[in-house]
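It is worth pausing here to work through a concrete case rather than discussing structure prediction in the abstract. The textbook approach is simple: state the sequence, then state the predicted structure, then interpret. We follow exactly that order.
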Amino acid sequence: MAVVKVTRPKLSAGEKIYLGAVVKGFFITMKHAIDSLRGKSRGAKDLESSGLGVTMQYPEQKWDEHLPEHYRGAPALVTDEQGRERCVSCQLCEFICPPKAIKITPSEIPSDDPWAKVEKRPLEFDIDMIRCIYCGMCEEVCPEQAIFLRKDYAITGLKRADMVHDKEKLYEIGGVRVGLVNKWNELK
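Step two, the predicted structure:
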């Protein structure tokens, strides 16, 4: 394999101290500032901004109508139409989670339960929203479609413990998902 030797170009004194790039950047910044003050900022109408630039006034204005179709937000657990848990505690989402934000403790379903045909259900299902990176891998790997990423980006809490969502909280924010659930399928 031949070795190609590349020589660096000789820079002038102005190029060596980046004077031209600094001046050019200053003029571009000033142009945007003047356009903003004149109310001619690019994208201001799309974001319904206050008129001074493209800054969205967050609590009053939200991104909800501007979110793309493929947006991935916070994960939540869902139930079926009859209020039954979809999760079978297979722990695939826990194993595939890159930041290890999911913790599942499986338990068995008692034999006297009408839904005893299913082997297990989650006793505890916790997701640490501080650690979650909203990658969507838990949703992709779930065989029962029990976990979904909802379009929610404003997750707040007053302390760290508020940011760990337990099973009840995850079902509360997840809601009901309509469709065939494999674990309740009689043919399975």
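Step three, interpretation. Strands lie at 75-77, 102-108, 120-128, 147-149, 164-165. DSSP finds five helices and five strands in the chain.
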